[in-house]
Amino acid sequence: MTDLLKTTTGIVTAALLAASAATPALAAEKWDMPLAYPATNFHSENAAAFAACVTKGTGGEIEIVTHPGGSLFGGADIKRAVQTGQVPIGERLLSAHANEDPLFGIDSIPFLATSFDASVNLWKAAQGAVEEALDGQNLVLLYSVPWPPQGMYFNMEVNSVDDMNGVKFRAYNAATAKLAELTGMLPVQIEAAEVSQAFATGVAQSMISSGATGYDSKLWENVSHFYEVAAWLPRNSIMVNKDPWAGLDDATKKVFTDCAVTAEAEGLQKAKDYTTFTLDGLKSNGMKVQKPSDKLKSDLAVVGETMTEEWLKAAGDKGKAIVDAYKAM
């Protein structure tokens, strides 16, 4: 080989090696994951742990980056953003979309499942049907985690449904809007990220939510009472668009599903732990946390029966099958 050829070959080889070093064989794929709740909320912390699990499990080939607090998409827009491929993955309170399919509201039927154990059983009965409904919307369900039991916030003492008449009530799904209607309150659609401002400015005077939402929003600054009515345990669901999901190989899908199993179990435990922590936090900051009076409890039970009947009528045979299976457990 001539000196010229050797020199040329060396230059080309060096250039190829440099190019190879500068450009990895497989560039990392970034998946943005919008979340509706603050970074310190247990759902957001759990989602961040799931994201880290997937990123590590894929060796960094897929990096999931969470965007809490509605910073990328507001809560009301997250499901649509995932469904249409604006982002590949996201977390959403499915019951907020019960107007699309009544099955999405299975976790918000008043007084049907009022404890964590009951919520787990109800989800077991409903999961297959919910996954089928999401599949028809170009979505794959990865995991679901309940909120703590829902209580009622008021800036006054409330002993019966009559005391609620005319109160401005924060609604976040069809069930809460219906609850407002049946109790004489005035529903106002407010997303989680806007709760603090809504109560501070008087846009809302009441809501039904977990102790977690009140604690995260520091509602003791504007609200005096929390009643532990344990109406239901709504769920946040993590969904992925079917198109990018279909593009994953089996090994990568297994990383996602394994991380999802872990996230669902850890999220459930976080919800249980957070229940006591947040209620204690509300109390320590001056809010009155108490059980409902017998009158209020019986009034709400009547409202619950009405809402259950209406949900079963809307959900049809599929809904009845879920409720029957749950009650048989």
H and E string: HEHEHEHEEEHEHEHEEHHEH
Shape: globular
Total DSSP E strands: 11
Q: Specify Rg, calculated over alpha carbons.
A: 24 Å
Helix content: 40-55%
Number of helices: 10
Distance between the termini: 82 Å
The assigned structural class equals alpha/beta
- If strands are numbered along the chain, what order do they take across the biggest sheet? 7-6-8-5-9-11
Largest beta-sheet characterization = 6 strands, mixed
Low-confidence stretches: 4-9, 11-26
The portion of residues forming beta strands comes to 15-25%
Calculate the mean pLDDT score and round it. 92
Explain what the structure shows.
The protein is α/β, with parallel strands linked by helices and 329 residues long. It has 10 helices and 11 strands. The protein has a 6-stranded mixed sheet with strand order 7-6-8-5-9-11, with helices on both faces. Strands 3-10-4 form a 3-stranded antiparallel sheet. A two-stranded parallel sheet has the order 1-2. α2 runs antiparallel to α9, α4 crosses α10 and α5 runs antiparallel to α10. It is globular, with a radius of gyration of 24 Å. The chain starts with a helix and ends with a helix. The relative contact order is 0.16.
Please outline what is shown here.
The chain is α/β, with parallel strands linked by helices. Helix content is 49%, strand content 16%.
Characteristics:
329 residues; six-stranded mixed β-sheet; 11 strands
